Amino acid sequence: MASPSPSNEPAPDRQRRAYRAGARMARDRIAREAPLDARALEAVDAADVVVVSGAYDHVEQVLDALAMPFTAVTPAQLGQVDLRRDQLLVLNCPGDVGAENVARIRDFVAIGGSLFSTDWALERVVQRAFPGTVEHGGTDTRDDVVPIEVLAHDNPFLRGVIDGADEPRWWLESSSYPIRVLDRDRVKVLIGSRELGRRYGEPAVAVLFRWGEGEVFHMISHYYLQRTELRSRRQSGAGAAYFAEKGVAVPDELGAELADLRVGEVESAATSSRLFANAVARKKRAVLEAERRRRGEAR
């Protein structure tokens, strides 16, 4: 059992530093391992990613760490946004956007838009807009941390997310909504947790499904992880060791920030940063390829 660590207590400053390090690693690895994704990320502009603010989750902090442009709106402002099929819409927990916007989100996805949502948005938006796919699992979680496992290794969302010696943990906010999969043919469980299933009856951590021409990605709990737990000797090691594991040099500007961080903290931040960067890159690549096809047809 690992010795107690200060990372077991909520610490906003530590998490911000962990995300800066994890996001930098994610971008460096994408440049090395997936150059087409890296070029797509360089082409992203603020209009490509629309983030609806939430009271509890803050995906925009992951985007800031990734140095990725985006457009931020409040739930009240969402109705004024002209949603386009080439956009990724991020819906932070709790997802209280109102019935009219639920219908608009359904139509947005149907024409080709991509939705990325977290936690309570499951009940407030996803199961209402996309009936028969997923729903609230019925038993809210406690404040908890569980180990997670990749279940769809060939999915582009998960490229480079968990590999090698990784043993990432996912934080469950108190009263998070477990995800019950209703349509097992349509809905793919990308990330799961046996421990989550044992404790709360539903093992799905992240799911993906098509709806019309678009897609929906939903994840339990909050995407911006506010804490982790160190359960092994490896996870309690110095944060710089995680860079060494991945064969990535520690940037000079991150040396001081990594000084007191642990492997487990950087690992969790890098995992969530890479997952979101993959989602944005996948969407942007599809848009760029469609534009190239249209230009070719126009000649």
How are the elements arranged and paired?
Layout: H1 12-33, H2 35-42, E1 49-52, H3 59-65, E2 71-73, E3 88-91, H4 99-110, E4 114-118, H5 121-129, E5 134-136, E6 144-147, E7 149-150, E8 169-172, E9 179-181, E10 188-192, H6 194-200, E11 204-211, E12 214-219, H7 240-245, H8 255-258, H9 263-298
Parallel strand pairs: 1-2, 1-3, 3-4, 4-12
Antiparallel strand pairs: 5-9, 6-8, 7-10, 10-11, 11-12
Brief rundown of the structure:
With 299 residues, this protein is α/β, with parallel strands linked by helices. It is built from nine helices and twelve strands. It has an eight-stranded mixed beta sheet. Strands 5-9 form a two-stranded antiparallel sheet.
What does this protein look like?
The chain is α/β, with parallel strands linked by helices and about 300 residues long. About 35% of the residues lie in helices and about 15% in strands. It has helices at about 10-35, 35-40, 60-65, 100-110, 120-130, 195-200, 240-245, 255-260, 265-299, and strands at about 50, 70-75, 90, 115-120, 135, 145, 150, 170, 180, 190, 205-210, 215-220. Strands 2-1-3-4-12-11-10-7 form an 8-stranded mixed β-sheet. Strands 5-9 form a two-stranded antiparallel ribbon. It has a two-stranded antiparallel sheet with strand order 6-8. A hairpin with a 2-residue loop joins β11 (about 205-210) and β12. The protein is globular and about 50 Å long. Residues about 1-10 have low confidence and may be disordered.
Features:
alpha/beta; Rossmann fold; 8-stranded mixed sheet; 9 helices; disordered N terminus
